């Protein structure tokens, strides 16, 4: 029986391996991690991540051909294929700080594989890594190999959170990069056989190592660039009276452009877009391509601009100060259907409002108080390190309360900001909310989820990203 081990039981390692075990009953899959808490959660009824459909898959396979363990070395030693799906955060110190990928966790995993291996192995890069990482990993493995053969493959993951299980069950493509040697080709075949259990072969793309590594960074950069493009348009729409949803619809009808990923928002978040683009920028700089680096850097700059613009809209609309005012924040996760808050735009928006001395009352159906306090007090990029390496007890941020429903959050508030597009925010009883708020009552919709006209009829002053402005907002600049 083929044995697979995955190092890193996170958002990628857990769901990916669960689906492999579901679709390949003849393969034994072990997911290992240094975090005991995470592994305990994977073995419990409350999984460590919220992802629609994940519970069912894990319950079906756990105890059969899927296991979760902290015994990293044992499972690595026993396996034929080792996936490495550890974090690859942005470096915070030293050469490339603030841009380059920190490969500490990857390197330590590679050294451990070399240490414990007693038989030939295929080592698969599942984490997103800088192009040419496989070369470095290969060196670590071969210099420590004791005669064992390691074949390195790049098999980047394209799942999105919130839809991870359906993305994994029905991927647009699976990408496998390998060396163009006989051993490299054999390794590609072995991994292709795993995916071929459920993915049509014409969707399994095989390339050289560097193309696979770079395609992952390129795909995230292209996706984020679409969002920054539509968000840049949203600012122009507000200035001209155009409606960004209508513009996006008209633009997206062109089959060469397509309709997806054109929703204007308060800004993109998530653990990867910013990290991967910064990494791309750094690689371009290192390769003597400053113009290319500047081009991609602009995607991040527009994203930061969009978040600042949103905060400025709130403050300028509310008589140029939110000091002492209660602002209800609806949604904190970086998108709906996930409890993940990594790089969520809510962090920057909340910090901006706190900077102007607002009192925040935050509600998100999947994010708890501890996480929100941690996010608001943590330094940039600290979040992407394993929990045991993060600051121990973050000081709780004053003037922030976290509540468990939207009505409590909005009671007596002066304004509401919607920062995540949770479906429940569409159908709240806005008349009741209006009755219980201070007047004038404001709604700042950072995700275009509410029916602005309906809310205006109730009496709200509404700001929707990229939509024709309320008279109230017209003469109040969003850019300082
Ligand atoms: P994560 O932080 O959720 O999980 C990583 C896990 O690796 C952690 O549980 C950590 O404890 C563990 N780990 C770190 N070093 C280890 C070691 N030496 N031995 C054993 N375990 C170790 O991260 P994630 O979101 O799953 O992302 C992992 C990689 O996949 C990143 O490179 C990311 O860019 C990429 N990726 C993420 C997504 C996503 O949606 N989150 C999608 C595609 C690709
Ligand atoms: C993204 C990619 O979609 C995945 O293909 C990739 O594997 C993953 O990053 C990764 O490498 O980590 P994810 O970040 O989970 O997935 O979620 P997305 O659906 O891409 O959303 C990212 C952010 O963009 C969210 O904050 C979302 O609200 C925002 N977004 C998305 C918009 O503002 N507008 C859109 O039209 C789409």
Can you walk through the features of this model?
- The structure is a single chain.
- The chain is of the alpha/beta class and 480 residues long.
- The chain folds into two domains: 3-199, 3-Layer(aba) Sandwich (Rossmann fold), CATH 3.40.50; 221-464, Rossmann fold.
- It contains 18 helices and 14 strands.
- The chain has helices at 13-23, 36-42, 54-61, 72-78, 104-116, 133-143, 164-169, 182-195, 209-240, 244-252, 273-286, 290-317, 345-355, 369-377, 406-410, 430-435, 452-458, 471-474, and strands spanning 2-7, 27-32, 66-69, 81-84, 121-125, 150-154, 174-178, 204-208, 326-330, 359-363, 400-402, 415-418, 442-445, 461-464.
- The chain has an eight-stranded mixed β-sheet with strand order 3-2-1-4-5-6-7-8, sandwiched between helices. The protein has a six-stranded parallel β-sheet with strand order 11-10-9-12-13-14, with helices on both faces.
- Helix 6 (133-143) links the parallel strand 5 and strand 6.
- Helix 11 (273-286) packs antiparallel against helix 12.
- The longest helix has 32 residues, at 209-240.
- The structure holds nicotinamide-adenine-dinucleotide (NAD) and uridine-5'-diphosphate-glucuronic acid.
Shape: elongated
Per DSSP E runs of 2 or more residues, the count of β-strands stands at 14
Fourth CATH level, the homologous superfamily of the largest domain: NAD(P)-binding Rossmann-like Domain
DSSP helix count?
18
Strand order of the largest sheet: 3-2-1-4-5-6-7-8
> Bound small molecules, which ones?
nicotinamide-adenine-dinucleotide, uridine-5'-diphosphate-glucuronic acid
> pLDDT average, as an integer?
94
- The quaternary structure here is single chain
Q: C-alpha Rg, in Å?
A: 24 Å
Share in helix: 40-55%
């Amino acid at each position: 029986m083929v044995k697979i081990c995955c190092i890193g039981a996170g958002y990628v390692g857990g769901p990916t391996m669960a689906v492999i075990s579901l679709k390949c009953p003849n393969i034994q899959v072990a997911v290992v991690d240094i975090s005991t808490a995470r592994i305990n959660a994977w073995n419990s009824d409350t999984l460590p991540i919220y992802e629609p459909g994940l519970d069912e898959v894990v319950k079906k396979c756990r105890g059969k051909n899927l296991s979760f363990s902290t015994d990293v070395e044992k499972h690595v030693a026993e396996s034929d294929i080792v996936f490495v799906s550890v974090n690859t955060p942005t470096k915070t110190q030293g050469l490339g700080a603030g841009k380059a990928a920190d490969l500490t966790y990857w390197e330590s995993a590679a050294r451990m594989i070399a240490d414990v291996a007693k038989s030939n192995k295929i080592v698969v890069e599942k984490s997103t890594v800088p192009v040419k990482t496989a070369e470095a990993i290969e060196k670590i493995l071969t210099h420590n190999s004791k005669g064992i053969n390691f074949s390195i493959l790049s098999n980047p993951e394209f799942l999105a959170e919130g839809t991870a299980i359906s993305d994994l069950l029905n991927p647009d493509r699976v990408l496998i990069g390998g060396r163009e040697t006989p051993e490299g080709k054999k390794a590609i075949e072995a991994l292709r056989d795993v995916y071929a259990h459920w993915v049509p072969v014409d969707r399994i793309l095989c390339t050289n190592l560097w193309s696979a590594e770079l395609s992952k960074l390129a795909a995230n950069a292209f996706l984020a660039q679409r969002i920054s493009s539509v968000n840049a348009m949203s600012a122009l729409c507000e200035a001209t009276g155009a409606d960004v949803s209508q513009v996006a619809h008209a633009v997206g009808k062109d089959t060469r452009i397509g309709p997806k990923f054109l929703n204007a928002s308060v800004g993109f978040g998530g653990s990867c877009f910013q990290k991967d683009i910064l990494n791309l920028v750094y690689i371009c700089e290192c390769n003597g391509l400053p113009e290319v680096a500047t081009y991609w850097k602009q995607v991040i700059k527009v994203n930061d601009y969009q978040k600042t613009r949103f905060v400025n809209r709130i403050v300028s609309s509310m008589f140029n100060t939110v000091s002492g005012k209660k602002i209800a924040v609806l949604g904190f996760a970086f998108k709906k259907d996930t409890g993940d808050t990594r790089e969520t735009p809510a962090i920057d928006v909340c910090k901006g409002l706190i900077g102007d001395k607002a009192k925040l009352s935050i509600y998100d159906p999947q994010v708890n108080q501890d996480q929100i306090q941690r996010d608001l007090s943590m330094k940039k990029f600290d979040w992407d390190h394993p929990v045991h390496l993060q600051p121990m007890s973050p000081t709780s941020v004053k003037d922030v309360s976290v509540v468990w429903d939207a009505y409590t959050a909005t009671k007596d508030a002066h304004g509401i900001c919607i920062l995540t597009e949770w479906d429940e925010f569409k159908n709240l009883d806005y008349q009741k909310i209006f009755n219980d708020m201070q007047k004038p009552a404001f709604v700042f919709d950072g995700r275009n989820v509410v029916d602005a006209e309906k809310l205006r009829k109730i009496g709200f002053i509404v700001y929707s990203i990229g939509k024709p402005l309320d008279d109230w907002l017209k003469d109040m600049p969003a850019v300082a």
